[in-house]
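Sat 14:20. Reprocessing the chain from the morning session after the first attempt stalled halfway. Input below, unchanged.
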Amino acid sequence: MKRISKGLAAAVLTATLTLPATGFAAGGGSGGGSDTPTCSNGKVYDKATKKCVSKSSLNDQESIFEAGRALAYAGEYGEAIDLLSRAPDQQDERVLNMLGYSHRKLGMIDTGIAYYKHSIAVAPKYALVREYYGEALLQKGDLAGAHNQLQAIRNICEGEDCESYQMLLAAIESHGGGKVPPRRIW
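Finished this time. Tokens:
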């Protein structure tokens, strides 16, 4: 059984009491969490109208991405995949990343990795996809590959202070990967 922090519990309780039809999605233990509300009864949050609407009423890229991401971070991976697959621009690195994330969380790690690789091909400097790709590599036991993604994130962020770097580093350390030695500058 998972434990949640008192702060998260208070935030969820506050959101539940103040927004009866919605709750805020958590980031699922990785960087890139969303503050987009999720809705009940199979509806999704539309940022443009600031309302819960049926999924079929969403038709613009940003609304579909935001709602799909919120579904994924809320653990509704199948729903997220269904919605994100309707995005008009299937080359959007964020959509590809969330499709990878959702497939990976459903246990389809190789499918997730294929989406991550596609996202990286579209946007090589997108740190969040490299974090999630590194986590997928850890799930497959590829510690060296995860370290490579961590190094790529360090280069993208020009250091170790970005959230994606810290989250992947923590995942590597929890898998017994130890600290990464500092990069040598010649």
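Strands lie at 22-24, 37-39, 43-46, 51-54.
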